[in-house]
Structure formats: structure tokens, C-alpha cells
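Aim 2, interim progress. The first record below pairs a target sequence with its C-alpha cells.
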Amino acid sequence: MRSSASEIVARARFLSIIFVIAALLLSAQLYIVQIIHGEAYRERARGQYVERSRDSLERSDIYFTELSGSLIAAAVMQSGWRLVIVPRDIEEPDVLYEKLSAITSLDRERFFASAAKKNDPHEEVAIRLDDDTASAIRRMRLPGVLLAPDKWRYYPGHELAAHAIGFVGYRGDDRVGVYGLERFYEKTLARIGSGLYVNPFAELFMNIGAALSRDPASNEGDVITSIEPQVETRLEHTLDTVVSTYAPKFAGGIVMDPKTGEIIAMAVRPTFDPNTYGTADTTDLFLNPLVENVYEMGSIMKPLTVAAGLDVGAISQRTTYEDRGCITRSGKTICNYDKKARGIATMQQILNQSLNLGATFIAERVGHNVFREYVHAFGLGEKTGIDLPSEARGRVDTLDGNYEVDLASASFGQSIAMSAIGMTRALGALANDGVLPSPHMAKSVRQESGVVRALSVAEGPRVLKSETVSEVSNMLVEVFDTSLLGGILKEEHHTIAAKTGTAQIAIPGGGGYYPDRYLHSFFGYFPAHEPRFIVFLLAVEPKGVEFASASLAKPFHEIAKFLINYYDIPPDR
């Protein structure tokens, strides 16, 4: 009897386990059908349905992240209808055209050309119809007329962060991400499956596999970015003012958290609306010059030169040198921007007055080989690895030779070139206790199951000592407080470390520099010793202004004040 009772208990337990597993699978399948695929099934059930066109798109979404943590749609799928006709079922094309065109806009030539193709099973004559229009057509019960569910990519912010988000376009016959995050995260955003039904066992294990995978971006899901829409809007408004005032070829800006490397805002002017990218005059407008182009950045290189000198002990803040206004190196004349001598000058004066000869003095004290090592350590000769396509690698190979003029020029930001994001990362080391940040836009991926997984970001290398960073930051605060525009921008309760850059633009083909074309740059971070943000601004060939202090200092200050107030950054002095 005991053996029989044990067998009964064992069977009961086994059956209980089976029932529990079945219940779990049924619950999982109901969740998949009602929650994950619910909208898709509802859409399929509505109205008449014909074969989905290759133009129809299935794709995950991209989101901005507000300061509050709320997600704001940056790129989503929008649903509607396609108007399809069956030519062989249409007896009076003229009458049908009049009835349909009274409800929605139709291309007359396209409609009649399609209606004439009697051997074709169906022809699309209109796309992207809303529900109201589709309902009106459906109520008319017109022979030979069908409505097919349609989806397309929509960008609710229109121009907002367009160069960062990118857009979906054609590559051959396929619709894929072709610029920006849309392209970089194509494997994450593209939904490969063509059907709605998946075996519940298979889907359950697929979701488990996605949740456990090392790289969340390798699985389908929504991309959640660190772009804050209010900051992005303010940056773009500021750039619009720069463009309207100085008419540069282009202007751009980056706002980054130097501790995490998260890009809070990135903008370029001129820009475009990704919803109507086909109306752009040239595809060059879609390229992101902050990532894909390199430039000689000018005097914003000087803080890095000072940092290298302090870091190796070649100089101290008490070091002085004799400034003669102009010197000769490798048979070339190098001068301060105004060609004036300063006599005995200090290291602080090098930054305050942006003295080219002072930067040359430091680089020569450091030594050619060691200075080159610092340039490479700052990452200026490589890509940052930012999650945007077609990033350009910096060009610093002029330092591989032993020419004195190249060392001198590089010390104040000429003869070497790098991208704006590359320069922002290098300067970010000053705002991150000497460690290079890792710039990135995507924070996490929300997988189809609803699980949100953070994307891992590798910590950059340490390139400067903490004490070096502290000294340089103090010097840059002095620049902002006293020298920049005579000190009129000084914030009473917040320290800001900042520097301008005005670079000559090289003539293509090695013909020297244009005498009247400049690149203006500006960077700053704050609060200076516990930085929350680093801001980088760039304007290429601004008109009617020679120095970046005149064109970009006030725009930078406007952004800095906005960030201090918006993020409620506490005073540090």
C-alpha cells in the first residue's frame, strides 16, 4: 500500500508540474498576443487586407530622455492605410477617380495608368491615409477598391536632433537606416520577422536569450538615448542665432556629461526635416560634420598643451618665458595672433591672451617625442568610438617628423586636425579628473519583452594626473572670469573653465592658409572642479567677425546659464 500511495503522489506531482508549465506557456502566449503583438493583430483585423508592400516597414522606436527620466519619442512607426485598386474589377475609371479624389488627394496620371493595367492583381494609387479617410472610403463600398494597412517612419520632433537621429531611406530595394542612430543601430531597430505568429516555446526562449545576452544592442528593441529634448532645443536655438548673425558655412554644438560620456545634445546648422528628406537640395546636408569631418581647431588646443607641460613637470604655473612676438622654426615664421611681443610672460598669460609663442615654448620644453605621445594619449589621432556612423579619424601625422615648425604649430592647434567630437573628448579629460570620457548617445535598449537593459560603455584611460587637471581648471576659470570679453561673463556663484579658439583654414593641396577665412571654436565646463557638463561650439567661416571670443563666447554663456538653471546646479563659490 505504501508503494502504491507513493506512486500516486509522484504522479500527482508530475501532473501538477505539467499543468503549471502549460499555464505559464498559455500566460506567456496571451501576453505575447495581447500586449506585444496586440496592436498588430488589431490592425490586421480591420478592414480589407491585401498583400503588404515592400514599402511597408516594421521597426523599433528611438527615444529622447527628459531630465525627469520620461521618454519622448524621437523616431516611431506611424500607422495608416494604402489605397489599392484591382484594375480588372473597375468598369468606369473616370467615375471611380472622381469619387476617390473627393475624399483624398490622388495623382491623376498615376491613377489612370494603374487602372489600365488589367492583368495586374492590384495597384497602389495612394499611401499614408489616416483612419478617417480610410473609413470614408470603406463606407462607399466601391468595387475594385481595397485598403491595405501601412506603416512608415515618423519623426515627431521634425528637425530636432536630425543629424544625430538620422532617418530611414532606401538602400537598393530595402528600407533601412541610412544616417545617424537609425543607421548605427540598424540591427537593433530593424524587425526582421515578417509574420505575427511565433511558436510560444520559441518566443519564450528568444526573450530569455535576449535578456541574458552580453550585448543588448545585438537584439531587436527600442533605442533610448541620452539626448535631453529641452537642452537640444536650446542648443539649436542658440546655433540659429549664431547663423543669423554671422552666416558661417555651418555651425555646430555638443553638450556632454564628461563623467559618463553621455551626449545630452548635438546639433548642426543648416539642418533638415527627416520626415521630408527627399526635398533637400543635396545629400551633403545629411552628413554630420561634428563627427565625419576633421578641422584644425586652433587655440582650444592650448589648455591641452599646458596640461602636458604641467603633467611631466616641464613647467609650473610660476614658469616664465620671453615672448618676442615672432620666432622662426624650420625656416618658417611663427607669430602671436597680433605679432606683438609681451616680454617676460607667465603661463597664465599664455591662456589669458592666447599666445602662440607661449604654447610653442611649452611644447619645446616638453620635447617633440613626449608631446607627440600626449597628443596620441588624448585620442586626437583616432576615432572616439561614438555610436554614430562614418566617424573620421584625427590627422596628427605631421608630428611623426622632426620638424620644429610642426611641433610649434601643433601646440596651438594648427597643422593637426581632428573631429569636433574628438576634440570634445580630449578636452573632456580636463573635466573628468584626467580620464578620457567615452562619448555615446544610446543609454539602453528596451527589448520586445519590455525589459530595459543598459548599454555598457568602456571607461577611457587616464591621461593626466588629478593635480594637473586641478591646476589647468584654475587657470581656465581665470581666463573666463577676467580675460574673456573683459570678464563681463563671469558667473558670481558658479565657476566656469573655458577657452576660445580661432584657427586659420588651410588651403587645399598644401598651399598654406587663407588670409581671411577662420574656424571659430569654444569650449567650457562647469562647475570647474565638479563638472556636470562640457559644452563645445564650432562655426566655420563666420562672416564679419575675426575672433571666436566675439562670435561664440556669449552663445556659450547662454547655454551654460540655461544648463545651470535647468539642472539646478548648486553654487560652488
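The second target in this work package is listed in the same format:
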Amino acid sequence: MDAVLLIDASGSMLKTDAQMLRYEGAKLFLQFLGKDDRLAIVSFTDKANVVSDLKEFSKEPSEAVVQQIQSIKTEGQYSDILEGIRAATKILEASPRNDAERIIVLLSDGKMEPNPQAGAPSTRTVELVNQVLPELKAKEIKVHSLAFSDQADKMLLSEISASTDGLNWFTASSDDVHKSFANLFLVVKRPQVLQMRSRSFTLDEDVDEATFYITRDEGAKLNIISPKNQEMTVEKHPDWITWFAGKNFDVITMKEPDIGEWQVQGGGEAEGFATVLTNLRLVTDWPVVVRVGDKSVVQARLYEGDKPVSLPEMSGVVQYAFQVVPTDRVAAAVAKDFLNDEGVDGDKIAHDGIFSRYCPISESGEYKLSIVARGPTFERTQQVPFRVRPSLLAFSIVPGGEDAHADAHGGHDHQGGGSDAHHGSAASLKGDPSFVFRAELSKEALAFRDVEVRVEALSQDRKKTVVQLKRQHGEESAYYETTADSLPEAGTYTIKATLTGTSKKGQEMEAQTDPVKFELSGVTKKPQPTATPVVKEVVHEEPKQAEQLPLLPLALISGSSIVAMIVGVLLTKKKKNATAAGAGYNPPKQMLDAIASLEEKLKTSDIKVGDVKLESEVEAERTEAAAKAATPPDGEGAEQEPATAAPEAPPSEEA
């Protein structure tokens, strides 16, 4: 781990951290560091000050580091968190390591009070949230923050951590600060853990090093008894044990400890855990931030050194189990079960040595996940503190009318994401067309741009209906609704709501609710518009009529103009067909012969209008010629008037 302790040294901390809790926490943080970790220390007011640059940490000179932390004076007039985070980031980027997690531990009251010459507090906050924090997330640098006292700006500190996938803790007194840092250690390092049971720890033969972290009453003293019945205290212990005593906690590290049960005595209401270094390790996969209703999966497997434990030698005799317990309230475990390697219930591949199980959480808050692998001669545990954020979208089906309006504003908690006719049931819900489909957006989702909320309903015969929901009761409302009569007919449907939008940081966001069964009654099938059958015929398309040109006197149109127009039409037709069919247009031979004859005639003179005959005129002449051929010779039939040829009249100018 490469870590920067970023300590607020502004004058406001004299009010929000009068007991100097941040220094006590910083000392405890040092106890969790090892020889493969690096540490830097930065303080900030309106400007950042590098107290100690990034360098390898060693337990031996840690007292010198403690002195550096305690030497930081709290006297700055201003407080600019943006400057502090920029300085910490610069240190981490100066000498990166590929295999190290990079974190910033921010100890502050969260007050953004910059020097007026640097900008207004709102301007600096916007720059931090919209520009700097997204860059940190892209670089996978997490900011974990700790808020002190009720006067702290917990909202800003929480936003800083959440934007970088870090965690934020709040502590109002010195009784809790060490617990927050212990949780930070568990999140970042994910060590092998042994729970203290009946005030004792049991170490097996695979443990090379153990560290006991034990909380106690302030001022009380602890004793530990080894498996060989040797009593040890902070004043009296062997050289192979390192013992650090804080105000109300002890951290005891021992190399090559005795195998067996270590007992803890004294200290009042003592509790704690032990971390162990061992070649047999439990490796887990669980996010530190999840959302209500997410189908998150707990995964775990054993490693022997850097290699996974071979199967099936161990899998048949090792049990994997987990439980999730709230840490922000007194409550029983909200989830507990065994993990499996059978390819079901969240396990992707059967018998691959990775044990898994779905673990959805239905209520937002702070939790701790404990995972244990227990074999005949050993036990390995990991603990992962994590946070559950509210769901982006909650869905419910409620009766229509005034009751629905009252329910929308009557204090029902929709954050659970459940669906029922007042929030939900696994059975099929029943309702009439007046029932309301309601989707409620979380505060985070309300800030999205281009928001679209829709309901997807799947009927029993697998027909899908998609209905857009409309925002209700003003532009600031969190509710989107539609009535059940938007469904096409009565019947049973599987319904879910979907949200899409764009976050402040430009990320495309999407959320879906779990499907719920809904049985709609009292609706007759809506008539569907009758579609007119389309009969396709193979026809020659007429060329699109071009923009109409002004008419010219026909006598002024020369033969060459007519040829030019014909050739233009042919070229246009050829280009159009070539584009559509991918090949050139081949005009009929009859047309080509006609054009050649016309061109020959044009060599001597222009065409007269009288030379051009319409198709109807040609047909009339043919009919007349046929009639004459059928007339009998003189004397054999009725007398005929002699035919007189009419003189050809030149066309008038009007014609």
C-alpha cells in the first residue's frame, strides 16, 4: 500500500477536533502498516505542506513518524481541501508501483474555507467534485475520509470518498476513532483475521506472525497469557513481541508465536480481533460500496502461498460461510449462509475452487461482512466493512385516486426497492385499471440529466409492453407514474421499472427494479388498429417530376434540344439504376435505334412540329389505312365520295 496521511491543520479544527482525535487515529494507522508499505504525511491550510515524503515504512523508527504527526500545528486561517488533495495526488504519482494500492487518508472537518484570492468556497468545491475527484477515480486513487464532531461537513467528506470508491467514517468522540481506523485497515489490507472468542485467540501451526488488536476501557491495562502459561504486559514482555498502548486500545504483534490458545485478561469490556500472517490464506472478493437490491456475490477461496488450494483434497472438508451485520445500529445479522461451489446461487462455475453466494442487501447503511473458511485443523477469516447506498430507483404498485397521491407524499420509505400494492410481496398482486405504477428516484438519480423512466410488462404469452412514465407533481418531484390501464388487456404480467440517465460526471447510468407479478382485471382487450394489407407489384417507377420549368413556345424548341433532354433523362435513369442496383442502365435496342435515326435527321435541319406525331395520331392513320383496304372496288359497293387531300397548313405562331 502507498498511503498519504492528509491532515487538516486549519484553525477550525480547534473546534471540531479539540481532543486531537486525528493524531490518535494517525498513530493507530501506523500500527497497521508493514514492511511492504510506503507512507507520506501532508498537512494543509490554504496551502499544502509536505511533512514527510513517500518512503518505505519501518516499525522501528515509527516513533519518529509519530513525532512528525504531533509537530503539525493547528493554526491556519484558511482550509482548502482541494490544495491538500492535489498535493497528495502529486506525491502518489511521482513514484508509482504497479502492485500497490494507492490511497489518501483525509483527516478533516470537511470545511472548504479557501483564501479568497484562490476563489470562493463554492467554486473550489465544484472544481474538486467535478474535475479532480473523477480524475482520481480514473487513476484508481481512493480517498478514505474521517469526519470529526457534529460540526464537520459530513456531506462533503462523504461525497469526496464516494466519488473515488473510498469509504467515509464519522466519529464524535475518542471512543470511536480507533474503531474507524481499524475498519480502514480491514478495507485496505484485507488481512487474515481471527475473531476473539471468550477473550482468547487460537493460533494454528501455519501462523508465522500474529497481531492482536484489542479495545479496552480508557486507562485500564491488559494482560495476555501464552499457551505456555506465560503472563505478559505492556511493561513486561519478550523481545519478539511489539506492544503499542493507545488511550483505549492495544496493538500487540508477535513473530513466530506459540501455537495454541492465547488468553486476554483485564481491560474491562475488551473486544477485538487478531490478524495473522500465514502461508494458508483466505482470499475474498466483495465490493466496499453496493446498492440496495444489487445481486452482489460473495466469493472466497483458499490459497497456499500464491497458488489456489488444490481440489478435491480440501474442498470436501472445508466449509465456507459468511454473515453481514449492520455497524451503524444495533441489529442482528441481515444475511448469513454457506458458500457453495456447485454452480448455483451466484456460483458461476461448479467445482473450480471458488465458493460463492448471492448476497443482496435491502436497506442502506454501514455493514461488516465476515467470511470464514473452517477446516479440521485451521480457521481463516476476513472482515470487510462496506457501505450500502440507496437504490437509484424504487418501484411500487398502489391503488389509484386520492390514496395514491397520499401514498406518494405520506412518508412511505421506497428506498428498499420493493414492489407491492403498498410495497411489495412475492405473490401476484391484483388490481384494476385505476392502479398506479409508481417509480421513485433517489436523491442521487434526481441530479441525472436526460432521465427516462419506463415500465416493461411481460404477459403470460410473452408479449412485451413498454410504457413511458411521466413525472408527477412538478419538475422537482421524485415520482414518475402511469396507470394500469396502459396495459393492453386483462391478465397476469411480470412488471419491472427501468431508469436511464447521465450522471453529473457524464457517466451513462441505468438501474432496474426486481420484477413483480401483477394481475390486471376489469379491462377488455383494446381494439388494435386494422392494418391495410400491402400488395407489392413489380412496376416501372416513373422518374420523379423535376421542378416545373416555365413553358417555352413549342416552335422554339429545336431538335438538338429534344435530343439533349432525352440524353439527360437517359443519363439520370442510368445513374439512378446504377446506384440502386449496383449496375449500369442498358436502354432497349429499339430506343437506341430511334435516337440514332433522330440524330441523323438533325444533321440537315431542325424538326418541324408537324413532323412529330403523337401515338394516337399514328394509331388513327393505321385504322384509316385498314378501312380503305377493306373497301370493295368501284361498282361493287356503295358509291364513295372522292377523297380530296387537304393542303398542309403551316403552324401559326399561336400554335
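DSSP finds twelve helices and 34 strands in the chain. This observation will shape the mutagenesis plan for the next reporting period.
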